[in-house]
């Protein structure tokens, strides 16, 4: 048996402030550091030898993985950072407070913008300091690949090809991916074969490892390690 561990980063500072974050690079909050630490302790109890390590380009995801690896006392030869595992780009919503947006647009519209399969927010202006083109960590990404906004569908369309080409063949060995709510939601849609309507109901908790068990690359079991914060849509 082999395992794929999916971990959404611990709470970020903008999660705490209830802001749409997307591709903006923000640090973990104190609570997020605690969540990442608890994730590491939960994974440690599994006593797994982890071989492959993936994260996004974003600090909150990288920091979460580092905290986990420190607890596991693992010093990997390499960690693969992939922008394709980044959070969904929230377009012109980036940096706005979610409650204020709800007051302006209404709860139904905000739910549709956040959770529907193919309904992106309006694009973010290229001159915005929050645009990825103006954030240094993305300087090595070809400009044509950097979005102005994304739906979950367009997020899925970058996450899954990367996963299939670069990660899926590693599933005969234990692998960990530290990523984000919507990149992990995309992976779950693919791995659990969740349809376009049901995926809107899937919540991904921060800092709660989801462990998938494989036999010859076929998934045979799945569970959250912290059952008290597990979400219920994933059925196996």
Concise summary:
The protein is α/β, with parallel strands linked by helices and 236 residues long. Helices cover 33% and strands 13% of the residues. The protein has a six-stranded mixed sheet with strand order 3-2-4-1-5-6.
Strand sequence of the main sheet, in spatial order?
A: 3-2-4-1-5-6
Uncertain spans, ≥5 residues at pLDDT below 50? none
CA distance, first residue to last residue: 17 Å
| Largest sheet data | 6 strands, mixed
Could you tell me the number of beta strands? 6
Shape assignment: globular
> How much β-strand is present in the residues?
5-15%
Radius of gyration: 17 Å
Helix/strand order:
EHHEHEHHHEHEE
pLDDT averaged over residues? 94
Q: Helix count?
A: 7
Global structural class: alpha/beta
The proportion of residues forming helix, as a percent range, comes to 25-40%
Description:
The structure is a single chain. The chain is 33% helix and 13% strand. The chain has 236 residues and is an alpha/beta fold. It has a six-stranded mixed sheet with strand order 3-2-4-1-5-6. Helix 2 packs across helix 3, helix 4 packs across helix 5 (107-115) and helix 6 (152-166) crosses helix 7. It is globular.
């Amino acid at each position: 048996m082999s395992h794929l561990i999916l971990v959404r980063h611990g709470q970020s500072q903008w999660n705490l402030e209830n802001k749409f974050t997307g591709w903006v690079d923000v640090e973990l909050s104190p609570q997020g550091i605690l969540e990442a630490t608890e994730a590491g302790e939960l994974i440690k109890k599994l006593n797994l030898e982890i071989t492959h390590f993936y994260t996004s380009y974003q600090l909150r995801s990288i920091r979460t993985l580092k905290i986990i690896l420190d607890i596991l006392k693992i010093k990997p030869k390499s960690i693969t950072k992939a922008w394709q595992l980044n959070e969904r780009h929230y377009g012109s919503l980036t940096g706005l407070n979610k409650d204020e947006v709800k007051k302006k647009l209404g709860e139904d519209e905000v739910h549709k913008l956040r959770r529907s399969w193919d309904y992106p927010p309006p694009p973010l202006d290229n001159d915005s300091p929050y645009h990825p083109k103006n954030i240094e960590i993305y300087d090595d990404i070809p400009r044509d690949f950097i979005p102005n906004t994304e739906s979950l569908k367009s997020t899925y369309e970058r996450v899954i090809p990367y996963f299939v080409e670069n990660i899926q063949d590693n599933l005969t060995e234990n692998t960990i991916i530290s990523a984000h709510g919507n990149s992990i939601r995309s992976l779950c849609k693919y791995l659990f074969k969740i349809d376009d309507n049901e995926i809107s109901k899937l919540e991904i908790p921060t800092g709660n490892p989801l462990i998938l068990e494989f036999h010859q690359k076929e998934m045979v079991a799945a569970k959250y390690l912290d059952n008290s914060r597990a979400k219920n849509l994933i059925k196996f």
